[in-house]
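Q: Please design a sequence for this.
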């Protein structure tokens, strides 16, 4: 057996073991079995066999004995990687630690466990959720004339706004104890898909309070007083929320936003209280033009040490009535000629008490984790739901048109080029 062929076999064995992430003990045993077969069944030169046996034994000693492996190999490789990799900021660390992963992690492992995917139960609607889809959602869709909304009204009709409030379309994720519907994520998605197939303006209006709005942040992080006061009002549309994150310079990258607040003493309701003086400039904020309640993300600083020794406290989230002095709601945006309520908001030296911070004083500086854990979950429902709604409507209309449109005395649905595009 030639040395090149033996090397090829040896490398092939190592590749198979690495690809399947074999343990060190399995790798060592496989190498010994391989070399034993080569020694017994071939006429390989003794010197070559001796070389491979020595190489295998040395590798077994170094890698199988953990203290020696750590000293000679692992520590040096780790030190090299630490030099090559950039230092992780606290913000990045919080983002990585926020939330959890499901089957998606299996996909990125390279060897997904399909049994784990099959073990996930099929999503189903409860009787209450199905009744909502069959009743209020169908009724809402019948009220929507998207041409009129887009080209004439540039808004939803007042009757539609009122109906959505009465039927608690804005409170799907709010628990029943606070007057909400407490629907599952699956029901939430099904409702948005149905509405979005008729009017993207209505779907965007419903999606924000149930995903990008403050309700979920309040439920997970708010004080009991904040929950008791705001959640029932949000559930029935008595308060219309928006969440101001996107900045002209930084987009929705919260870590880069220039908006800031400074801890200071100020006057609130005729009393001198400890609070925050805020300055911000946000745009593309859905529901901002009609919002009564503004969720705001900003960077908080405490130069005078009024809350402790930490000067740069970090990203913080607050809930502010839009009637607070210093708040400006700018002219509406009209993105892609879609007239859902969307616009800019600015704040100039806006003073708020610490009680406006979501979760109160104990949650200052915890805004990044709030955004990562809560808003990401809502976006994973609202944005895909709207995309699916558009895809379903496009499929229905394009497929129907292809059946009735005729060319060369035949339906164009029989053309392979059309069939490929529809597929």
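A: Design:
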């Amino acid at each position: 057996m030639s040395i090149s062929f033996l090397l090829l076999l040896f490398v092939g064995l190592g590749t198979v073991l690495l690809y399947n992430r074999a343990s060190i003990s399995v790798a060592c045993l496989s190498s010994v079995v391989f070399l034993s077969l080569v020694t017994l069944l071939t006429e390989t030169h003794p010197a070559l066999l001796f070389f491979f046996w020595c190489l295998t034994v040395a590798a077994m000693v170094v890698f199988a004995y953990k203290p020696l492996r750590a000293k000679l190999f692992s520590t040096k490789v780790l030190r090299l990687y630490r030099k090559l990799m950039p230092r992780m900021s606290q913000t990045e660390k919080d983002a990585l630690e926020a939330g959890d992963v499901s089957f998606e992690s299996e996909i990125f492992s390279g060897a997904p466990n399909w049994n784990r995917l099959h073990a996930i139960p099929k999503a189903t609607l409860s009787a209450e959720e199905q009744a909502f889809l069959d009743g209020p959602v169908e009724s809402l869709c019948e009220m929507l004339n998207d041409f009129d909304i887009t080209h004439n009204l540039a808004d939803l009709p007042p009757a539609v706004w009122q109906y959505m409030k009465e039927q608690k379309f804005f409170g799907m994720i709010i628990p029943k104890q606070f007057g909400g519907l407490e629907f599952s994520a699956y029901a939430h998605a099904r409702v948005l898909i149905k509405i979005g197939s008729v009017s993207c303006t209505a779907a965007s209006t419903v999606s924000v309070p149930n995903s990008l709005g403050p309700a979920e942040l309040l439920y997970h992080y708010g004080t009991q007083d904040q929950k008791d006061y705001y959640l029932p009002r949000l559930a029935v549309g008595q308060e219309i929320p928006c969440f101001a994150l996107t900045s002209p310079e930084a987009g929705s990258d919260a870590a880069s936003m220039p908006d800031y607040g400074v801890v200071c003493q100020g006057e609130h309701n005729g009393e001198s209280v400890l609070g925050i003086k805020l300055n911000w400039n946000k745009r593309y904020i859905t529901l901002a033009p009609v919002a009564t309640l503004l969720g705001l993300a900003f960077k908080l600083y405490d130069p005078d040490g009024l809350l402790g020794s930490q000067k740069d406290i970090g990203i913080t989230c607050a809930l502010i009535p839009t009637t607070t002095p210093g708040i400006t709601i700018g002219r509406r945006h009209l993105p892609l000629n879609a007239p859902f309520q969307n616009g800019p908001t600015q704040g100039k030296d806006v003073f708020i008490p610490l009680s406006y911070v979501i979760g109160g004083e104990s949650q200052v500086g915890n805004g990044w984790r709030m955004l990562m854990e809560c808003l990401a979950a809502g976006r994973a429902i609202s944005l895909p739901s709207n995309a699916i709604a558009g895809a379903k409507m496009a499929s229905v209309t394009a497929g129907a048109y292809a059946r009735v449109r005729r060319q060369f005395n035949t339906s164009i649905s029989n053309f392979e080029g059309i069939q490929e595009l529809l597929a």
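Q: Thanks. Anything notable?
A: Strands lie at 241-244, 260-268, 271-286, 293-301, 312-321, 327-329, 342-353, 406-407, 410-411. The chain has 16 helices and nine strands.
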